[in-house]
């Protein structure tokens, strides 16, 4: 190809070639990697020129710019702003890049590097959901309305105090985990959870305070939801007991929950 063909890259990128010269250059571009690489490097410059308005270029003229160059640039900008033509320039250049990749010659992407990548939703790697259960539950139970609560459920209402308790007893390698809710628990008071073992020994595994409105009461319908752990194995537990503790440290039982 002639040197004129090689010198047409800028004119082609700006869209100032006539139809015949444009077709001739595109035929040349399909086989000339030097021109394809030069066209690729000019795409960002052409993109910047598209953001310059004629008023800005007119101001350049007032700073002793070359008037001949100014006229040619203005004409190139008007032509370039025909977006359909510019898209054709990009498509042609992209086709050359694809062809270059097939022959072992690669160029940088002609697209804007600042654009964020398309989001990709990969497979979930979270913990599997607990299997569904047919076990009945109360609205105040831990996990009620969501995934099935782990553990053996115990629902108890103390006939003397009226305190309602729902316990989930979970056997663990370290001992036993207890998830529980309490209702009809008046306040104010201080409470504690005690584990009583088969050998008659006991251990306090959780303490809390109850506000004046209580939990699961007319003043405060929200039930109390808590968790506790003990090193005692579930097989060694006789029962759990929620106790109320007065200012002198004297405890009185509120509700007892058997382990089996």
DSSP summary, beta strand count: 8
- Rg measurement, Å: 39 Å
Query: What is the terminal separation in angstroms?
Result: 93 Å
CATH architecture of the largest domain: Sandwich
Mean pLDDT: 74
CATH topology of the largest domain: Immunoglobulin-like
Describe the structure.
Strands 1-2-3-6 form a 4-stranded antiparallel beta sheet, with no helix packed on it. The protein has a 4-stranded antiparallel beta sheet with strand order 5-4-7-8, with no helix packed on it. 20% of the residues are buried. A hairpin with a 4-residue loop joins strand 4 and strand 5 (202-210). Residues 94-137 have low confidence and may be disordered. It is 31% helix and 25% strand. The N and C termini lie far apart (93 Å). The protein folds into 2 domains: 3-102, no CATH class; 152-258, Immunoglobulin-like (Sandwich). It has helices at residues 3-6, 9-14, 19-29, 33-49, 54-61, 67-80, 83-102; strands at 152-157, 164-172, 175-183, 189-197, 202-210, 224-230, 237-245, 251-258. It is of the alpha+beta class and 260 residues long.
Protein traits:
single chain; 260 residues; alpha+beta; Immunoglobulin-like; 7 helices
How are the SSEs ordered, and which strands pair?
Elements lengths: L2 H4 L2 H6 L4 H11 L3 H17 L4 H8 L5 H14 L2 H20 L49 E6 L6 E9 L2 E9 L5 E9 L4 E9 L13 E7 L6 E9 L5 E8 L2
Helix pairs in contact: 4-7, 5-6
Summarize the structure.
By secondary structure, the chain is an alpha+beta fold. 31% of the residues lie in helices and 25% in strands.
């Amino acid at each position: 190809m002639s040197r004129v063909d090689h010198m047409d890259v800028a004119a082609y990128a700006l869209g100032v070639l006539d139809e015949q010269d444009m077709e001739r250059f595109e035929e040349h571009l399909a086989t000339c990697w030097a021109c394809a690489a030069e066209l690729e490097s000019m795409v960002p410059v052409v993109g910047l020129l598209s953001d310059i308005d004629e008023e800005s270029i007119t101001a350049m003229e007032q700073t002793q710019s070359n008037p001949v160059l100014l006229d040619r640039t203005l004409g190139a900008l008007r032509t370039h702003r025909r977006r359909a033509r510019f898209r054709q320039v990009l498509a042609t250049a992209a086709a050359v890049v694809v062809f270059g990749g097939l022959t072992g010659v690669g160029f940088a992407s002609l697209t804007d590097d600042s654009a964020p990548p398309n989001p990709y939703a990969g497979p979930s790697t979270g913990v599997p959901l607990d299997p569904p259960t047919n076990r009945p539950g109360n609205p105040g139970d831990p996990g009620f309305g969501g995934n099935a609560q782990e553990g053996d459920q115990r629902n108890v209402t103390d006939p003397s105090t009226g305190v309602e308790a729902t316990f989930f007893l979970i056997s663990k390698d370290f001992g036993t985990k207890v998830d529980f809710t309490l209702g009809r628990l008046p306040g104010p008071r201080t409470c504690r959870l005690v584990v009583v073992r088969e050998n008659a020994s006991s251990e306090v595994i959780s303490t809390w305070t109850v506000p004046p409105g209580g939990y699961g009461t007319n003043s405060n319908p929200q039930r109390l939801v808590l968790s506790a752990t003990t090193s005692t194995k579930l097989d060694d537990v006789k029962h759990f007991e929620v106790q109320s503790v007065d200012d002198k440290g004297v405890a009185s039982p509120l509700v007892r929950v058997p382990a089996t």
